[in-house]
Amino acid sequence: MHFAMPPRKTSRPPPYAARQSRGFGIPPALRNILRDRSRGLVVLILGFFTLFWLLGGMSGGERSAVKNTIVGSGAPVVIVTTIDPTADLRWVERIKKNREDYAKKHGYATFFPSTADYPLKKSPPSWAKVPALRHAMTLNPTSQFFWYLDSTALIANPSISLQSHILDKSRLEKLMIVNEPVVPPDSVIKTFGNLKGDRIDVIVSQDKEGLCVNSLFVKQGEWAKYFLDAWFDPIYRSYNFQKAEAHALEHIVQWHGTILAKLALVPQDLFNSYVTGPASPKNGQYKDGDLIASFPGCDKEKRDCAEEMEPTLAKLEGKDKD
To answer: Which residue spans traverse the membrane (predicted)?
Structure first.
């Protein structure tokens, strides 16, 4: 069966069609007026968008001035500690001074936001550390490293420089624990080997139960912002993990190779020694000379951080006066 082909449209329409399509019966004088007004309207629209583009370019220049700042030209490390607004004020001031004295000695900066500053909704206050780090990055765009240190920990050896102790890339490569289960003792997901120190953006330690989130380092950059945003995802906060953000971190590290590939696991006593708590049996118990004396969990289970930390804090304050 053959189907009739539709008639082919000519590329040369009859003269009357062309005339009708141009004028639509409108008198020439009126067409000229409309044409002039249309040109004026086009000029007006173009002028508006030009002005908008210029203003946008100016504000974009301001944004790029921040974006293009040289990372590393500011304080090399920002120490971030979130504060419970209901905590004893005298104890809080001593915790802040512990960080401020150390930061002043080494040229670092400090940041002490309240846990109430962030929209946690029904999530535990411990989640505040994640947006606090993100906040600190925004406030300090030229700083390179951000050290989150829980209020349940004390800087016990202020003579230690973080660069030579941990952060220098060649030093970090020597410290990294490779082929280690992410969650002890027998997680099938293990830390990568052959990672380069300058490719690491997150530095953590591990106690005998899992990854530690009471003391960790994050390196400034777009990847770190992605990492913190992923960690703070509402889905993870709604899971009701037993250990809140700690278990959420273990989850994303084990399930997202792109995050594990940027993570360095180092010995616990480098920056997270436990005075009390589930310390790593290998290297987690506090000893004289360690950088950090940590009391994990002292803010929970009807314990009193101020009371537990008092002997160590008083000893450290006494050394400062000597």
So the answer is: 41-60
- What tokens does 124 get? 């535990």
CA–CA dist 294, 317 (Å, integer): 16
Burial group, residue 274, by CB count within 10 angstroms (0-12, 13-18, 19+): buried
CA distance 86 to 287: 31
| Domain-wise residue ranges, the chain | 77-321
| Rounded-to-integer distance, Cα 191 and Cα 205, Å | 12
- Token pair for residue 14? 């009859």
Q: Is 155 helix (H, G, I), strand (E, B) or coil?
A: strand
Across 9-33, b (16+ Cβ under 10 Å) vs e yields eeeeeeeeeeeeeeeeeeeeeeeee
Tens-digit pLDDT profile for residues 138-148: 999 999 999 99
Q: Which residues of 175-208 are buried (b: 16+ CB within 10 A; e: fewer)?
A: bbbeeebbbbeeeeeebeeebebeebbbbbbbbe
Rounded-to-integer distance, Cα 238 and Cα 306, Å: 31
Angle (deg, nearest 10), helices 305-321 and 89-106: 40
Give the predicted TM-score (pTM) of the model: 0.78
Q: Do 96 and 80 meet the contact criterion of CB atoms below 8 Å apart?
A: no
Distance of CA 69 to the CA centre of its chain: 18
Distance CA 268, CA 283 (A): 6
**Measured distance CA(136)–CA(84) in Å, rounded:** 17
CATH top-level class for 77-321?
alpha beta
